[in-house]
# Entry
Amino acid sequence: MSATKREEVSSHLRYIRLELREMHQMLIKDDLLPDLNEAKEVHAQLDALLELLSDKRVKKINSQF
# Structure
């Protein structure tokens, strides 16, 4: 994985981790469920990260054949 991609993945993971930590604190502190839009945003970030990683994997497979 190139350094740029690695930095991009790392950035995505830091952001997702922060969002999930905030949601977790909300659950503990207020005993409330997180806002649906916040949950959807984190899910979209996870999808973007998966797509980023999947594209790299597909390129590797295609270059082998």
